[in-house]
């Protein structure tokens, strides 16, 4: 048998395995970056929906964020909830696709820039994790962020949280279809670029 194939073989279609998020990944109080009653605490919450608009009951979200002063925490032991703010949390969705985090409002990491949460999403039907951002509604616009400036108003709106009457932040995720959330790709050394899941 020859070691050289006469022509290139087509790639095998990708398949997802799982999700198995209920095993080992969730941990107690993973969505609570700060204690209840912490001064400046805010609730970030929303719903994850698929392309048909149905809730995704088995997704998992992670957030990474700056502290209120715009500093990026650099501390190991994020799985430990010992009262030290690490800027990282993990939440799974419930049967209605809902999730929530209790955290601090992030500050801008650069003067004049819009503060945001980095978000990583894992869900059924995805071959890899998805990356996106959830911006604070105050000051989020083309003049305050290069990514927001690169998007039209409709796409930009998918990345901006809504301040609710109780002060919490609502941010819904749509994996595909009408109102699809803008997702990002990260090329090594090139920064973030847009990558629509449905594209």
UniProtKB/TrEMBL annotation:
What Gene3D superfamilies does this protein's entry cite? Aromatic compound dioxygenase
Keyword Oxidoreductase among UniProt keywords: yes
Alphabetized UniProt keyword annotations = Dioxygenase, Oxidoreductase
One Pfam match, given by its short name, reads Dioxygenase_C
Q: Which residues form the Intradiol ring-cleavage dioxygenases domain?
A: 18-109
Query: Does the keyword Oxidoreductase feature in the UniProt annotation?
Result: yes
Per its UniProt record, what InterPro entries does this chain match?
Intradiol_dOase_C, Intradiol_dOase_core, Intradiol_RC_Dioxygenase, Protocat_dOase_a
For this protein, the record's SUPFAM superfamilies field holds:
Aromatic compound dioxygenase
A single Gene Ontology MF term assigned here is: ferric iron binding
Spell out the family assignment given in the record's similarity comment.
Belongs to the intradiol ring-cleavage dioxygenase family.
User: What is the official name of this protein in its record?
Assistant: Protocatechuate 3,4-dioxygenase alpha subunit
Organism encoding this protein: Promicromonospora thailandica
Where is the organism placed in the taxonomic lineage, from the top?
Bacteria, Bacillati, Actinomycetota, Actinomycetes, Micrococcales
């Amino acid at each position: 048998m020859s070691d050289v194939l006469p022509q290139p073989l087509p790639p095998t279609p990708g398949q997802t395995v799982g999700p198995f998020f209920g095993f080992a990944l969730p941990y107690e109080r993973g969505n609570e970056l700060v204690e209840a009653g912490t001064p400046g605490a805010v609730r970030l919450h929303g719903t994850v929906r698929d392309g048909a608009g149905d809730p995704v009951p088995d997704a998992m979200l992670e957030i990474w964020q700056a502290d209120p002063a715009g500093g990026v925490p650099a501390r190991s032991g994020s799985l430990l909830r010992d009262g030290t703010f690490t800027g990282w949390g993990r939440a799974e969705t419930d049967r209605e696709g809902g999730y929530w985090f209790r955290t601090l409002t992030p500050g801008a990491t650069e003067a004049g820039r819009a503060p945001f949460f980095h978000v990583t999403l894992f869900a059924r039907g995805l071959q890899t994790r998805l990356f996106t951002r959830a911006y604070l509604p105050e000051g989020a616009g083309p003049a305050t962020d290069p990514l927001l400036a690169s998007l039209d108003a409709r796409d930009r709106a998918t990345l901006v949280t809504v301040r609710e009457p109780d002060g919490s932040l609502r941010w819904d995720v749509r994996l595909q279809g009408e109102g699809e959330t803008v997702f990002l790709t990260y090329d090594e050394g090139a920064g973030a670029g847009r990558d629509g899941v449905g594209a």
